[in-house]
Amino acid sequence: MEATKRKLEEENNGEHGSNKVCKVSSSTPINSSNPAIDKNILRIYYDRLFPVGLFFKWLSYADNNELIKKREFSFTLEGDVYIRYCSFTTKEEFKAGLLSKVPIKIDIGACFNAPPNQHESVANFKPQSKEFVIDIDMTDYDEVRSCCSGADICERCWVLMTAALKVVDRMITQDFGFKRRLWVYSGRRGIHCWVCDKEARAMTDRARSAVISYMSIELQKRELCSRMDVGTNTMHPTLNQAYDEVLPYFEGSPQLDDRGIKSIIDSQHLMETEESTELMLSIMGLENDEDFTPVTTMDNKTGLQKWEWLKKKVNSKNKARGAVKNALQMAVFTYCYPRLDANVSKQLNHLLKSPFCVHPKTGRVCVPIDPSLAEEFDPSSVPTLNQLHDELNAQPLSKDKNVKSWQGTSLQPHIEHFEKFVKVLQEDYRAEARADNKAKTTLRMEGVTYDDESLTF
Q: Ramachandran region of residue 437, left (φ > 0), alpha (ψ -120 to 50) or beta?
């Protein structure tokens, strides 16, 4: 192990500067001997399939080389070696780093005030910008899902991720006005969102904390009730919208039925027993209300039928207040409201797994997701490293340089979605650059001084 670290230190001090090497501190060590990951196949993946060009276009924002060279990357290598503060100035250099190090995991960090590989020699080295990132992990739903636990997922519980994506995506776009967000499957049990708008990347730690706090609810503390307007006893408008968005996933709808998506009540077998019905009443805060407790003895009714009975009972109390008034929302939100890992979002210098890297435990690629097609996304169909290797071997060799190696593989639709995203992002920032240059010219002509950094990105 020590020999490996010394070798890596020598390599890093050469090609990429003094990158920091350290032992992975995760409580669950990465299993580098996992048969899903073969180092030779992974090197082929980086050489022929990883979209290096698009990847660099994304993170350089209108080909801003000054920005990309200050971006931190980290590599986790075979043997549980973790390299921080890597930086690259060109896509060719980045690809060379991938092929020489063959990382089993890639993380993306912030853009600093200097190239990260020079961090030890720069005074007051600090992060300056980064995408606002959101992490939703299925393990946070373990207390409300009966089909799986831990890292396991299936189509019955994945609908929880779909409902969460819909709520978060709407908050990002409608409540905060951000447009450019990249949703990515984590490769195992969750999803990530990268909000790439200029204003989002410039947010301070304090602003990031405020945004993620706005989006989060501590359901166990019944914070929902604390967010009601005292005078009208109604929820915040964004929570009302969230309720309308997730309710179809909770109780089912014809549209979802047509797509083969079962309701949470059905798929998680809610209220099918007296015990689980009592649990639902407790979640709703109605466990001691004699108007509602009869539902626990309705053995001849299904979970969905019991839910409909509860809905009618609550809605019939037109003048109800407090727990009864919001009992339905408490039930639905406990199961379906996004459970966000706030710590991932709060700080600029927090690293997050890169799109298109391969998950070291499953061998699945971390692929982008089209939020408009979220219901159609199936994590079990995501291409694996070995699958892609077989698909490459089955392809006839092409002499046409315009034909990409990933075309014709299971990775193609995901790269094409990423390509569209990057193209729109590039167009946005080129338009902003032209507007900035026009503003500078106007100010110069008028003899006005200005802060140059406020007009560039």
A: alpha
